[in-house]
Amino acid sequence: MPEPRIDTIRAMHERRYALSCYCPKCDRWIVPDLARLIEEGRGDYNPIGRWPDCSVCGERRQWRLQPPVYRAA
After folding, report:
1. Which of 24, 32, 34, 35 is 20 to 30 A (C-alpha) from 67?
2. Is residue 47 part of a domain?
3. Over the stretch 42-72, which tens digit does the pLDDT of each residue have?
4. Which structural domain range is residue 23 located in?
5. In a domain, 73, yes or no
6. Which distant-in-sequence residues (6+ apart) come within 8 Å of 37 by Cβ?
7. Which of 21, 31, 26 is nearest to 62 (CA)?
8. Cα–Cα distance for residue pair 50/53, rounded to 1 Å
9. pTM for this structure?
């Protein structure tokens, strides 16, 4: 069975993945609100292979994709 595609903000959100961004220079993490990004029309954005700049220091950040965490009921 092929792996599900998680190459857009919308696909990540629908599959309950989390996306975070780390700036090694500032040692700072941010977690973008995927639902809000979709509402703003950026659901089809593909972060793979793209490196955002830090809004504080301007250095290149690193993405981290986190799979969903399932908890027993």
Report:
1. 24
2. yes
3. 999 998 888 889 999 999 999 998 888 776 6
4. 9-66
5. no
6. 9, 43, 45
7. 21
8. 10
9. 0.78
